[in-house]
Amino acid sequence: xxxxxxxxxxxxxxxxxxxxxxxxxxxxxxxxxxxxxxxxxxxxxxxxxxxxxxxxxxxxxxxxxxxxxxxxxxxxxxxxxxxxxxxxxxxxxxxxxxxxxxxxxxxxxxxxxxxxxxxxxxxxx
Length: 125
Description:
Blueprint: E1 4-12, E2 15-22, E3 32-36, E4 39-40, E5 45-48, E6 54-60, E7 69-77, E8 82-91, H1 93-96, H2 99-123
Antiparallel strand pairs: 1-2, 2-6, 3-4, 3-7, 5-6, 7-8
Protein backbone atom coordinates (compact mmCIF):
# COMPACT_ATOMS: atom_id res chain seq x y z
CA UNK A 1 0.00 0.00 0.00
CA UNK A 2 1.20 3.49 -0.84
CA UNK A 3 2.40 5.84 1.89
CA UNK A 4 0.39 8.62 0.22
CA UNK A 5 -3.29 9.30 -0.38
CA UNK A 6 -4.62 11.56 -3.12
CA UNK A 7 -7.94 13.39 -3.06
CA UNK A 8 -9.38 15.38 -5.97
CA UNK A 9 -10.07 18.99 -5.09
CA UNK A 10 -11.41 20.22 -8.45
CA UNK A 11 -11.34 19.76 -12.20
CA UNK A 12 -11.80 22.81 -14.40
CA UNK A 13 -10.41 24.47 -17.50
CA UNK A 14 -8.52 21.32 -18.48
CA UNK A 15 -6.66 21.02 -15.19
CA UNK A 16 -7.27 18.22 -12.67
CA UNK A 17 -6.22 19.27 -9.17
CA UNK A 18 -5.78 17.20 -6.04
CA UNK A 19 -4.24 17.14 -2.58
CA UNK A 20 -1.61 14.50 -1.85
CA UNK A 21 -1.13 13.64 1.82
CA UNK A 22 1.65 11.49 3.28
CA UNK A 23 0.90 9.05 6.11
CA UNK A 24 4.16 10.17 7.72
CA UNK A 25 4.44 13.97 7.79
CA UNK A 26 8.22 13.71 7.45
CA UNK A 27 7.97 11.66 4.24
CA UNK A 28 10.04 12.83 1.28
CA UNK A 29 8.34 14.50 -1.68
CA UNK A 30 6.65 11.83 -3.78
CA UNK A 31 7.29 11.04 -7.40
CA UNK A 32 4.00 10.96 -9.28
CA UNK A 33 3.42 9.58 -12.75
CA UNK A 34 0.24 10.02 -14.77
CA UNK A 35 -0.57 7.81 -17.73
CA UNK A 36 -3.09 7.98 -20.55
CA UNK A 37 -3.35 5.04 -22.94
CA UNK A 38 -0.17 3.55 -21.39
CA UNK A 39 1.79 6.71 -22.22
CA UNK A 40 3.02 9.43 -19.85
CA UNK A 41 1.16 12.71 -19.41
CA UNK A 42 3.53 15.66 -19.48
CA UNK A 43 3.32 18.82 -17.38
CA UNK A 44 2.25 17.16 -14.12
CA UNK A 45 3.25 19.24 -11.11
CA UNK A 46 3.60 18.32 -7.44
CA UNK A 47 4.15 21.36 -5.21
CA UNK A 48 4.63 21.46 -1.43
CA UNK A 49 1.80 23.24 0.41
CA UNK A 50 2.16 25.30 3.57
CA UNK A 51 1.69 22.14 5.66
CA UNK A 52 4.38 19.52 5.97
CA UNK A 53 3.53 16.20 4.32
CA UNK A 54 0.99 17.74 1.89
CA UNK A 55 1.42 18.54 -1.78
CA UNK A 56 -0.80 20.12 -4.42
CA UNK A 57 -0.99 17.98 -7.56
CA UNK A 58 -1.95 19.39 -10.96
CA UNK A 59 -2.54 17.24 -14.04
CA UNK A 60 -3.12 19.09 -17.32
CA UNK A 61 -5.40 17.33 -19.80
CA UNK A 62 -3.55 17.09 -23.13
CA UNK A 63 -5.37 18.06 -26.31
CA UNK A 64 -4.94 14.55 -27.71
CA UNK A 65 -7.22 13.26 -24.92
CA UNK A 66 -10.15 15.27 -26.27
CA UNK A 67 -12.26 13.36 -28.75
CA UNK A 68 -14.76 10.56 -29.17
CA UNK A 69 -14.64 7.83 -26.60
CA UNK A 70 -13.58 7.28 -23.04
CA UNK A 71 -10.17 8.44 -21.81
CA UNK A 72 -8.93 7.27 -18.41
CA UNK A 73 -6.01 8.92 -16.62
CA UNK A 74 -4.17 6.89 -14.00
CA UNK A 75 -2.28 8.72 -11.27
CA UNK A 76 0.42 6.47 -9.80
CA UNK A 77 2.98 6.53 -7.02
CA UNK A 78 6.12 6.02 -9.11
CA UNK A 79 8.03 4.40 -6.24
CA UNK A 80 5.50 1.60 -5.68
CA UNK A 81 3.62 1.75 -9.00
CA UNK A 82 0.37 1.81 -7.00
CA UNK A 83 -2.70 3.70 -8.18
CA UNK A 84 -3.38 6.81 -6.10
CA UNK A 85 -6.38 7.99 -8.11
CA UNK A 86 -7.84 8.14 -11.60
CA UNK A 87 -10.24 10.28 -13.59
CA UNK A 88 -12.14 9.72 -16.81
CA UNK A 89 -13.22 11.95 -19.68
CA UNK A 90 -16.15 10.85 -21.82
CA UNK A 91 -17.00 12.65 -25.05
CA UNK A 92 -18.60 12.23 -28.43
CA UNK A 93 -20.27 9.00 -29.51
CA UNK A 94 -19.48 7.15 -26.27
CA UNK A 95 -21.73 9.55 -24.34
CA UNK A 96 -24.83 8.26 -26.13
CA UNK A 97 -24.46 4.89 -24.38
CA UNK A 98 -23.33 6.28 -21.04
CA UNK A 99 -25.57 5.58 -18.03
CA UNK A 100 -25.35 9.20 -16.90
CA UNK A 101 -26.76 10.38 -20.21
CA UNK A 102 -29.58 7.86 -19.79
CA UNK A 103 -30.28 9.21 -16.30
CA UNK A 104 -30.59 12.76 -17.64
CA UNK A 105 -33.07 11.54 -20.27
CA UNK A 106 -35.05 9.60 -17.66
CA UNK A 107 -35.23 12.64 -15.38
CA UNK A 108 -36.49 14.79 -18.25
CA UNK A 109 -39.15 12.22 -19.11
CA UNK A 110 -40.18 11.89 -15.46
CA UNK A 111 -40.56 15.67 -15.19
CA UNK A 112 -42.70 15.64 -18.33
CA UNK A 113 -44.91 12.86 -16.90
CA UNK A 114 -45.28 14.70 -13.58
CA UNK A 115 -46.45 17.85 -15.37
CA UNK A 116 -48.91 15.85 -17.50
CA UNK A 117 -50.26 14.03 -14.44
CA UNK A 118 -50.74 17.27 -12.50
CA UNK A 119 -52.48 18.85 -15.49
CA UNK A 120 -54.75 15.78 -15.76
CA UNK A 121 -55.62 15.95 -12.05
CA UNK A 122 -56.52 19.63 -12.34
CA UNK A 123 -58.68 19.05 -15.41
CA UNK A 124 -60.64 16.15 -13.89
CA UNK A 125 -61.56 17.91 -10.63
